[in-house]
Design goal:
Elements: E1 4-8, H1 13-24, E2 28-33, H2 40-50, E3 55-58, H3 64-73, E4 78-81, H4 88-93, H5 95-116, E5 120-126, H6 150-168, E6 173-179, E7 181-183, H7 202-210, E8 217-220, E9 232-233, E10 235-237, H8 238-252, E11 257-263, E12 269-270, H9 271-282, E13 288-291, H10 306-312, H11 320-333
Parallel strand pairs: 1-2, 1-4, 2-3, 4-5, 5-6, 6-11, 7-10, 8-13
Antiparallel strand pairs: 9-12
The structure holds nicotinamide-adenine-dinucleotide and uridine-5'-diphosphate-4-deoxy-4-fluoro-alpha-D-galactose (UFG).
């Protein structure tokens, strides 16, 4: 029988790609999003690509009453919880908003799920919980450390809350997925990352320099102990990432308690390597200059994703150039993101 799933934050970057992957894998999809950083146009395009419909509600995950109603009315069996705020810098300036949204939202969601008798959950965590990892590549058993910023704290606290919940009640089956650096877009070029403000993350920034919307990339630090002095990260194609969610969701049937998987490609690229590869793939030049290190950044981080391969049968299939090519197809076809086509569905 077709399984119905609820995606919180499904109108955002990763959630919209997940909605598409789930529709294409035969799930019935229901989305709740308060549109603080999501777009109805993304959902319209998801349905266009899939040739299938999803159900969508504008609402907040901190609204327990609405959540309970959705869970029960739509016969939801599992929830993928993407909803949250994700700007590290903003979280430092406005920590209460981050704790309210990310911790308050996860708490309300779990309470509503519990009341509705839904106990399968896939949670969007982050490699940020490892802090500056002692050993690289990072394995899941690597100690988590107290992140330097409130955003990272909310991810670690939410993980701990979920772990306590799974220990207290054996009905819960929870997959915690620690993302490394999601990037790229669906190969159609119809959906992608559409930051409302000036991007904080490298890839959307580089793409917007290539379209001429921004002038030059500031490379935060060229004195790291890495081969070219710039920071190294594990960029993972967003389509690979969401396929990891489909695998984790399928495994929840046979899982008990809470388990954690790294979702990364398993190799790192430096900022300079990313910029050079982007220029090759797009045929555009990307101006850059060197700036001081960004506070809170680490020199290098990449995943050991072998646990996900062993246990979920998942590994990233798409390389850096495909990721950058897809990011460029999306950005060049939609220089203003979804804004030109935003409408209500
Ligand atoms: P995004 O901002 O594009 O998507 C999040 C969505 O959640 C948005 O559509 C937003 O409108 C919605 N939302 C926020 N608060 C809400 C609330 N209270 N109620 C209902 N909807 C709400 O971000 P994304 O990149 O798609 O990230 C998805 C998840 O993955 C987040 O939890 C994020 O912290 C986590 N994550 C992202 C990255 C990354 O680099 N993109 C890395 C690690 C973890
Ligand atoms: N960088 C620049 N210039 C920019 C933006 C980034 O040089 O304009 C550099 C950073 O210093 C870093 C690399 O590019 O070396 C990647 O930076 P991002 O901001 O794209 O990503 P981060 O690794 O800092 O953080 C991302 C997410 C976090 C998540 C973390 C997990 O933003 O939410 O990955 O590893 F927690």
């Amino acid at each position: 029988m077709t399984m119905s799933v609820l995606l919180t934050g499904g109108a955002g970057y990763i959630g919209s790609h997940a909605a598409l992957a789930l529709l294409q894998s035969g799930f019935r999809v229901c989305v709740i999003d308060n549109l603080t950083n999501g777009s109805t146009e993304a959902l319209r395009r998801v349905q266009e690509i899939a040739g299938k419909e999803l159900h969508w509600v504008e609402g907040d995950v901190r609204d327990g009453h609405l959540l309970r109603r959705l869970l029960i009315q739509h016969g939801i069996e599992a929830v993928l919880h993407f909803a949250g705020l994700k700007s590290v810098g903003q979280s430092v300036l406005d920590p209460l908003t981050y704790y309210d949204n990310n911790i308050g939202g996860t708490l309300q969601l779990c309470q509503a799920m519990s009341e509705a008798g839904v106990h399968k959950l896939v949670f969007s965590s982050s490699a940020t919980v490892y802090g500056d990892p002692a050993t690289i590549p990072v394995v899941e058993s690597c100690p988590t450390s107290s992140p330097e910023n409130p955003y990272g704290q909310t991810k670690l606290m939410a993980e701990r809350m979920l772990s306590d919940l799974a220990r207290a009640d054996a009905r819960w089956r929870i997959a915690v997925l620690r993302y490394f650096n999601p990037a790229g877009a669906h190969a159609s070029g119809l959906i992608g990352e559409d930051p409302r403000e000036i991007p904080n993350n490298l890839l959307p920034y580089v793409s917007q320099v290539a379209t001429g919307r921004l002038k030059a990339v500031q490379i935060f630090g060229n004195d790291y102990p890495t081969p070219d002095g710039t920071g190294i990260r594990d960029y993972i194609h967003v389509v690979d990432l969401v396929e990891g969610h489909v695998s984790a969701l399928k495994r929840l049937k046979n899982q008990s308690g809470l388990d954690v998987w790294n979702l990364g490609a398993g190799r790192g690229y430096s900022v300079l390597e990313v910029i050079k590869a982007f220029e090759r793939v797009s045929g555009k030049s990307v101006d850059f200059n060197y700036a001081p290190r960004r506070s809170g950044d680490i020199a290098q981080c990449w995943a050991d994703p072998s646990k996900a391969w062993r246990e979920l049968g998942w590994k990233a299939q798409r390389g850096l150039e495909e990721m950058l090519g897809d990011a460029w197809r999306w950005q060049s076809a939609n220089p203003n993101g979804y804004r030109d086509d935003e409408l209500t569905i």
